[in-house]
Amino acid sequence: MLWSLVKIVVFVVIVAALTLGASYLLDLEGGVRIAFGAYEYNLTPIKAVIALLLLVAAIWVLGKLVGLLVALLRFINGDETALTRYFDRNRERKGLQALSEGMMALASGEGRLAIAKANKADRYLDRPELTNLLTAQAAELTGDKRKREEAYKRLLTDERTRFVGVRGLMKQKLEEGDTETAMKLAEKAFALKPGHVEVQDTLLRLQAGNQDWQGARATLKAKLRTGALPRDVHKRRDAVLALSEAKTVIDEDSSIEAREAAIEANRLSPDLIPAACFAARAYAEQGKVKYATRVLKKAWETLPHPDLAAAFAALEPDESAEARLKRFRTLTRIQPEHRETRLLLAELNIGAEDFPEARRALGDLAVTAPDARALTIMAAIERGEGSADAIVKGWLTRAVSAPRGPQWTCENCNQVHAEWVPVCENCQAFDTLAWKVPPATEYQTPMSQHMLPLIVGRIDDAVNVPAPADPAPDHTAPETPRRAEPETETSATESVPDAEVLTEEEAAIAPAEAPRFGRK
């Protein structure tokens, strides 16, 4: 209503301006004299203006006639589309203008206006690859899934725009959670453009999520060929895929293939800890303990890790605690000051009932960098040396509220995993798990610090009570399970005679964080 009123007012103003201009010209004196040979014309001002407008119109018409004549001559000369192009030129101009306006509307975030301009451009232009693409992107901006899907499907009919249509449908299926269809579309898009980085990454992620390890390795190789992936990163991720393939084969009870895949994974990336553990197990099954030791030793040189220690212990499951401590020198003399090495030595000495040596190996880790594992080992040392129950319970209670220490943590979303997996269970990112201390969260454990004195009295007094010089003969180190020997698993309470029953908090931490290498 308001717009109609504005148009009426503008029309009245224009008519009034023309009327005033005409009356002004009529009141002017003089005129224009045109002499041409023996002819002479005298024009009043109003006639001169009219003549000028007629001359401009005549020139425009003459230009159109000349263009039509040229098109006719080309048609007679054999150009069958000359006349069609002449009459379609105006339509093309309007279509290009609508297309440009639609692109500007799309860039400005006006999705509905862009769709309207795309429809107008489609009426004037015979360029469906442009108008359908503009419609699809505008529908994506407005959230119109039906129109978006229809536009991308129309793009599939043209060879020039087929990849764009497949990629658009793939992204839409991913948004809808239809990963099976998205994977098929990603494979089609990859076949059309093997060097497209986004399609490579999407296909690799979908294949890894679907446990298609062979297909993922082929995609990874294509990324290396096209230069989208550095060679060292390719070796690492190829090892991850080979390891994942080995785990799948193990689940299928194909031991020979599992051994080969595990050894290949370790060969590709010797510093990949899970691959080293799998390769060591494969060599051990073949009776090649020397090769297994070499694999674990090389991995330990890169990063000492409890899984490597567990795999090394599994090589000789029936040895005594003293023999095990001696054999483990192969690892413990490598990076002796590393935290994991010191914790491992403390656990081994606890298993051998050498508690003073275990205390020396642990050093000040329970004070300077306390976590649940270090504090639990300290509790085991105190128990083995015959300390008072309040001291042991004090260390265990502190372990309940202490940080858990390094864990398999996704570097993309910081999700903590109980064991290594190739694909993050939370964000589905590939090869993002790292052995590190997860970032602190705002969550507070129910065992807050001000509740500890209610359980064991004053904690500072408890843990600072000097231990007896001679350990009581009836106290032994807590028998704990080896990670590679679940059949010998015993709880800390069962291995300590005359020990009191643990509280719920102690029971929650002790089995998970107790020393893993018990005595034989």
UniProtKB/TrEMBL annotation:
Mitochondrion among keywords: no
Give the record's keywords alphabetically. Answer: Membrane, Transmembrane, Transmembrane helix
All copies of domain HemY N-terminal, residue ranges: 30-143
Entry's Gene Ontology cellular component terms = membrane
Biased composition regions of type Low complexity, renumbered to the chain = 508-520
Q: Which Pfam families does this one have? A: HemY_N
Residue ranges, compositional bias (Basic and acidic residues): 472-486
Query: Which SUPFAM superfamilies does its entry note?
Result: TPR-like
Q: What is the lineage of its organism?
A: Bacteria, Pseudomonadati, Pseudomonadota, Alphaproteobacteria, Rhodobacterales
This protein's record includes keyword Glycoprotein? no
- Which residue ranges does UniProt annotate as crossing the membrane? 5-26, 46-76
Q: Where in the cell is it found?
A: Membrane
What's the protein called, per UniProt? Heme biosynthesis protein HemY
Domain of life from the UniProt record? Bacteria
Question: Per the record, which residues fall in region Disordered?
Answer: 464-520
